[in-house]
Amino acid sequence: MLGLLSWVAGCSPTPPPTYRIGFSQSVSSGDWRQAMLAGMQRELAFHPEIQFMVRDAQSNSRQQQQQIHDLLDAGADVLIVAPNEPQALSASVEEAYRRGVPVILLDQRTNSSHYAAYVGGDNNGAGATAARYAAQLLRQQGGVIEITGTPSSVARERHQGFTQALQAYPRMRVVGTIVGNWSATSPQPALTKLLQKHPETQLIFAHSDLMAQGAYAVCQRLGREDVRIIGIDGLAGKGNGLEMVQQGRSTASLFYSPGGEEAIRVALKILQHQAYERENILGTIVIDSTNVLTLQQQAAKLASQQAGIEQQQHLLRTLQATFASQRTVLYGLLVTLAAALGLGASAWRAARNNRRTNQELARQNAANDAINQELVRQNEANDAINRQLSTQNEEIRAQRNQLAALAEQARVETEAKLRFFTNFSHELRTPLTLIMGPVEEMLTGRNSTALLPTQRHDLGLIRRSTQRLLQLVNQLLDFRKIEVGKMAVQARPDDLVAFVRELVEAFEPAARVQQVVLAFQPMEPALPAWLDRNVLDKVFLNLLSNALKYTPAGGQITVSVQATSEARSLQVQVTDTGRGIRPQDSPHIFEWFYQGEQPATGKGSGMGLALAQGLVRLHQGQLTVNSQLGQGSTFTVTLPQELPAELHSPDAAEPLNFSVDEPLALPTTEADVPPAEAEALVLVIEDNADVNEFVARKLRPHFRVQSAADGKAGLQLALELIPDLIVCDVMMPGLSGLEVVARLRADWRTSHVPVIFLTARNAPEQQVEGVQAGADVYLTKPFNPAFLLESVRTLLANRARQREHLSRQLLTLPEPAETPNPDQAFITALTAQVEADLTRTDLTVEELAHVLGFSRMQLYRKVKAVLGTSITDFIQNVRLKKACELLRAEKLSVTAVAYEVGYASHSYFSNSFKARYGMAPSEFRARHQAGVS
Ligand code: ADP
Q1: Average pLDDT of 575-587?
Q2: What PANTHER family is this protein classified in (predicted)?
Q3: Mean pLDDT for the chain?
């Protein structure tokens, strides 16, 4: 198909023009000019590849210049110029030369030498030929008239040739020369006159056949048909030279070729890079009666040939047009054919595919039918299953509802049981405590030495069992408290290291008995933190007792305390080398009442860890375990160093490690109430660990309790903590109880602390000794725990009363009693110290404590214990009391009084005064004046 298309394309009969020849003609009118153009076209008829561009300047040189320029722009490869005026066109010829386009000058030259070729007749020769022919006609004798053309090189050369050649014939004489303008009529008037004047004239030579025609008419008119006429041009056609000669109107015409064919031939040679003549001078032929017929026939033949050529060219053009349109149709047909073939092919393919698809579809339809049948079957089966499922769902829903109802019922029942259990536990605690007292008394009391070993063993069993029962009951109660959200954390600034150390030490005897090494490894000497000892006690006691319970003899328990890398949290780890926890138990050991593997000792309730975790969470911490069966376990308690204010104990306003000084002038807004019983701190100093623990345990449910193992440690702790009460054994290694009390009393910081003596000795003199040393109560072992508890309460109440009394004394302004007790003495000294610095607004508690030999905390606790107020309040009291004095004295203005007693601003003074005495300072002064007068 493609081959066919390219074959059609290859048949094109009109190759594109390869050359362009431009022809600038001075003028196109006139036969001679027409003959020039016709000659060119005749020659070009053999060269259809040439594009021929013709411009007619209509005898206007300016126009010819422009046309030459246009032809150059139009891309002429060769330019043929027939100049209108030689001088005017030199520049245009030069331009073509500059643009590389060869110029062929036709018929006339210009002033420029930059032309490629010249084609033109020999005008001089034509003139000479005319002269020689005339001499021959007239037998070298006779008068001659010459009619020239418009003065130009043509006319001039023809004239010269004629004149010169005539000189060879002395008897030939030119009677006159007329200047015409190439037209027939132009010479007629002058010629008429000249002929009449010179009747001897025998011949007229005209530079053109046209002027010869005019001359012939003059001769006819004058009856001078005898005069011979010679013209130039010799052209065929109506009225032209050939016809004139043939009809006898002129004797001869000189054929002067217009040069059209020659110019084209030269142009072709130039274009085809063939050798060519630069100067192409065309010859002249004489036409007279001897050859005119031949020449006429030739001209006619030429003309008919030309017509034939033109006809053929016309035919060719028609054929070309037809061919072109047919070719277009053929292209269209071919394209349509190609498209049809393509469509046919695809249609055939589509049909084939359709056939296959249909077959496939048929097969698939069959398969689909099978599948559909199967689906229908399955749907039916599904429906059956769905029906079954919905029935089952309903059943499940019903069961779930039932379960929910059961769960709710169980919850209500459990709640009731727990309530009962809790109440029951409460009831159990009192008889258990009552059993513990006498048993304790029997084991540690005066007659304990008289016990038989079996009795001691049995009593020990009773004690342990009772302890265990009590512990369980307490745990249950704690559990209940956590459950119902009644367990509250009341944290105080404390030292975690010291706290854990005490607990570990309490376990040492038991560890020794069990032959387990108990190591305490604090990473820091102290770690300050907010702790609720009552809460954390139970946590660590549980972890330690578990460790001991599940670690066989020869094992080790390590307790470490450290600050974690995470900001502001602390860790206590209890690690044992015991039996470890089975992986399946690990996730459950913190659940209430969960007991994994049966405990080795057979004891346990499954409550310890659950309680411990509950308590640690209350304390905003975490309890985790890491254990390897057979290798041991590590329980980790992580606690925040600080706790939110709502978990702070109400009396924890003064932290242990004070560092910021607080100006004294600031009033305290907190209500200064005496410490509640539960917040009272009791220090137990007892070297017998069992007794120490017993006493501590007795008191712990009611007070905060700290223990010391001997007199020295006790004294140190007393000074550190300034407890609200001390229970102290008398007989101790190192510092005895008596010495401890004596030192306590001698020290202002502790002189106020009530002391209960415990001793096995009950000699009255010893009691006296004790009381003399400064003990407030003397209890002999075995003592009744209830009585001990009562004694502690009584003493604390007494302290409170004393406090009230003292504060009232201070408030109601009378001077301290004449015979001061130690408290009053301390208050007097403190007052004196404050008064000494009364005008200072920047006095700090720290400074004041330092002067008195106290730490800030000691001073705080001392003042609180003695007066029940904070030290800052006390100082404010002193200031205001002094202010009253000064106001009464009436020497100073109120503002001056304010400054005098250490108030930086009048309004602050006024407000404080009003808050204390219920009236403004000015009112106080006014009333006093009224009272006085
Ligand atoms: P129990 O009263 O049974 O000790 P706990 O709540 O204290 O109850 O502990 C729950 C269970 O966790 C225990 O029964 C024991 O199986 C396991 N367990 C607790 N502490 C340890 C430990 N240190 N070593 C091995 N097992 C332990």
Answers
A1: 92
A2: HYBRID SIGNAL TRANSDUCTION HISTIDINE KINASE C (PTHR43547:SF2), TWO-COMPONENT HISTIDINE KINASE (PTHR43547)
A3: 84
Per the CB < 8 A criterion, the answer to whether 903 and 876 are in contact is no
User: Is the CB of 691 within 6 Å of ligand 1?
Assistant: no
Atom 26 of ligand 1, residue of closest alpha carbon: 581
Q: Which CATH superfamily is domain 674-803 in?
A: Response regulator (3.40.50.2300)
Q: Is the pLDDT of residue 684 over 50?
A: yes
Per-residue pLDDT, averaged over 39-68, amounts to: 90
Superfamily holding 813-932: Homeodomain-like (1.10.10.60)
Beta bridge partners of 400: none
pTM, two decimals, is 0.38
Considering Cα of 903, then 908, then 911, then 912, what sign does the dihedral take?
A: negative
Question: Who wins on pLDDT, 439 or 13?
Answer: 439
Task: Give percent of the chain above pLDDT 90.
Answer: 32
- Separation between Cα atoms, residue 121 and residue 418, nearest integer Å: 150
Choose the residue to mutate in 609, 623, 629 for probing ligand 1, maximizing ligand atoms within 8 Å of C-beta: 609
Residue 110's pLDDT is what? 83
**Contact residues for 549 (Cβ-Cβ < 8 A; gap 6+):** 599, 600, 601, 603, 604
- Which residue type does 430 have? T
Q: How far apart are CA 260 and CA 598, in angstroms?
A: 139
Fold topology of 19-115 = Rossmann fold (3.40.50)
Q: Where are the domains of the chain?
A: 19-115, 123-253, 298-409, 452-484, 492-642, 674-803, 813-932
Ligand 1 centroid–CA 623 distance in Å is 14
Residue 163 reports pLDDT greater than 60: yes
Between CA 851 and CA 874 the distance in angstroms is 16
